[in-house]
Hints:
Blueprint (H helix, E strand, L loop, with lengths): L8 E5 L4 H12 L3 E6 L2 H10 L7 E5 L18 E4 L11 H18 L5 E5 L13 E3 L6 H10 L5 H23 L6 E6 L21 H10 L7 H6 L1 E4 L2 H13 L7 E3 L3 E4 H9 L29 E3 L2 H6 L7 H15 L2
Parallel strand pairs: 1-2, 1-4, 2-3, 4-5, 5-7, 6-11, 7-9
Antiparallel strand pairs: 8-10
Amino acid sequence: MAIIQPPSKVLVSGANGYVAMWVVQEFLEHGYAVRGTVRSAERGKHLKKQFAKYGDKLEIVVVEDITKEGAFDEAVKGIDAIAHTASPFYLNAQLIEPAVKGTVGILQSTLKHSTTVKRVVITSSAVAVMHNVPTPTTFTEEDWNLQSVEIVKEKGENAPSGAMYQASKTLAEQAAWKFVEDHKQEMSWDVAVVNPPFVSSLLPAIHEVTGLASLNTSAKLFYDHVADASMVEAEYLSKTGGNWIDVRDLAAAHRLALEKPDAGNERIIVSAGAFKWQDFVDAANALRPAPKLSKPLPKGIPGSGTAHPHTIHMVTYDVTKVNRILGLKYRSIAETTLDTLTDYEARGW
């Protein structure tokens, strides 16, 4: 039997965020009620407008500062499950304190002030799993990115922004699992963690976007590599990449992680696979009719991506656990590229 099922009420923290908006939509579309937290009433207006057809199934509450003790005390009351997505993804920000305090804070509030919550799913990241390696490596849920934590300890505020972000995700997730270990005798609910890859948001934005400059980090990366020929050199596209997941599939993973009994107390990597940017560029150039965008599509070196026999992916992930527990189905590079560029065309980009 599912841990939760419609019409249960789910708290989504940071509900106006890029991934969080798709998580909110996923729950509403499947018949759940949602209480979303935002940092100000102004930030909640777009949420209410975007999901107006769901009426009072969506409730917005303000949590001004997720790092303050007791920030979520009121928000967790009367809730059946929680999807904690609130954590910044802007590489130039000081990220560690809000990431750690926000994660531990929502768990503390749940323990102290909720009698109804059955599970909390936390959005972590694959960067809390992987680290830089000299040879091709497949990472599993047993791995931790302690490398970035050591860099930040050593260099402090002078640490590279990427290391700062990776350390924030690693330390926040470690703090969550320590909380579970310390309080397991008191908890009537459990925790699940989803770890999506670095480029986890490749689909059109449904959060408030005023233009290209307001895209979040991962969405702007996609635009720069796949929709603007002036941004990157041809050889770069076949040499660089990562691992990816369509944000709609990531949203589904959050719902499934709250529903599936076996997801409790599990750390789950969710990844559609490794890619080179050339893979998305080739998919974009194969679209018929061709999208009418404001700038020429990059060409790169066609066929030099993942399909090329000499291509090497330095980092891959073992997705045995997500397949076994969540049974998540992934969209293809072709489908994600089509939907994203269709959105760009509609926006005049």
